[in-house]
Hints:
By secondary structure, this protein is α/β, with parallel strands linked by helices. The protein has four domains: about 10-150 and about 240-290, Rossmann fold (3-Layer(aba) Sandwich), CATH 3.40.50.620; about 180-235, no CATH class; about 390-445, no CATH class; about 445-535, Orthogonal Bundle (Arc Repressor Mutant, subunit A). Helices cover about 45% and strands about 10% of the residues. It is built from 21 helices and 15 strands. It has helices at about 10-25, 45-65, 115-130, 140-145, 150-155, 160-170, 175, 240-250, 260-275, 305-310, 315-325, 340-350, 360-375, 390-395, 405-415, 425-440, 455-465, 475-490, 495-510, 515-525, 525-535, and strands at about 35-40, 70-75, 135, 180, 195-200, 205-210, 210-215, 215-220, 225-230, 235, 250-255, 255-260, 285, 290, 330. A four-stranded parallel beta sheet has the order 3-2-1-11. The protein has a three-stranded antiparallel beta sheet with strand order 5-6-9, with no helix packed on it. α9 (about 260-275) links the parallel β12 and β13. α18 (about 475-490) crosses α20 (about 515-525) and α20 crosses α21 (about 525-535). The protein is elongated.
Amino acid sequence: MEEHMIGRGTWLDKVADALVKREKRLGRELDLIRVESGLGASGIPHIGSMGDAVRAYGIALALQNLGYKAELIAYSDDMDGLRKIPAGLPEWLKDHIARPVSEIPDPFGTHPSYGAHMSSLLLDGLDKAGIKYRFQSGREAYKSGKLVKQIDTILQSRERLGRKIAEFVGQDKYVSVLPYFPVCSSCGRLYTAAAENYLPSEKKVTYSCKGSRIGKNEVAGCGHKGEADIAKGEGKLAWKVEFAARWQAFDIRFEAYGKDIMDSVRVNDWVCDEILGHPHPLHVKYEMFLDKSGKKISKSAGNVLTPQMWLRYGTPESILLLMFKRIAGTHSVGLEDVPMLMDEYDYYEDLYFGKIKEDNAAKLTKIKGIYDYINKLSPPKQPAPHALYRFLAQQASIYPGDPDRQEKVFARLVKYGMVKEKNDTIMHRIQLASNWADDNTVQDEKFEVQLADNQRKAINELLAVLQEYADVQETPENAKALQSKVFDLARANGMEPKELFTLLYRMFLNADRGPRIGNYFLDLGAKRVSEVLKRYL
Length: 537
């Protein structure tokens, strides 16, 4: 039976379709569908934090594709307290532990606060990737009273709520304490003041600053007793209930979440439905991004891979491809993935424009759909000129520190017939690959290649041939002669020439295709080519 295609045939379309159907069942207005992503402001944002916002934006695009108006709310959690000092940041921040990040000075001295600086790094990544969003500061939401109605309802339901949280996650803390953290007016700390009673008529919470355990450390309270005004943002809701307040206040219909906050989301869904009387948003659960050693990428662990680090080597499109390809399963990601994703985007583009054939119709549809979403539903009219990223990095590594490096690499591309004319796209790509060459020791790269006995023999014989070309100039005649010798070597060792050429491209570029071997090897230089080949022997 033929499967009906939804939208452009991607997981984004399936989620958008499910969302619209659910909203219709709930009988809600569909004039503007809001999706949300929370931006952490307590540490240096990483590629995973960006993924949360990028995927939410992808759902907004898929909704637009289905004919609905949609927008992404990027909500900064800048009322959160600082729980620990992220690796690499100054020690003086320990004096600000438990203070709201929006009240802590910026250690870099460029923004009004620590929280504003951290939010800005993620927003900068989103801006560079062309993600459209409406920014909402948590501090502003609390201070301007946008959450007062929700806080009031939640605090008046404290007993029912406390029992339910205990039932859901086995945490009985909120049976005796309000799910609200006042900011102590004496010491300025969050989390250290225990909220004791709620005075509904005054919209105030009474508290005692008794101290608290934050992570592995005890943070002493100052002993102050006071009142916090919920209408003036003198505190914030606990995470177990805060999402729900946001979802109702901003009428959020979709928010994805990482599996590390699954319990919080479950409680918030119940609070949204049962306490606030507002159907909770549709969710998609995703796996966390891990580094290559299998550890969670985290703001405090010091293994942060930031959007800015990625964009030194790769295009925004390569980040969007990483985020939009799939949502299920664990992603281990590192900067070493940049070359592969850069080339994979080119592959998607070639398929999209029919330069490469794909017989699997479902696969082609999905790839075209992802390509459309990477390009925000406005794909280019024609494909850009392509050159393998590792090839560009390799060529750039021949000219370290040369002021004319980009021009020289471009001249090589023209010579190899890869490009005809100069444009910003190819020159930017050469610059990115040059950055990669400078920072990632291209000359020592080795890829997964298993050599059969006859292949090993052919490589050894090729090393002997290369000795004859040690000081030979790169001319069309010499390149042709070397190319011819590689042909002969393949046949002498029982191989089709294509097999040996593919093997060599795998060893040098981790690809199945590349420039003509004769020209390429003479350009790299016989000495360097020999060094690479010996690594595989």
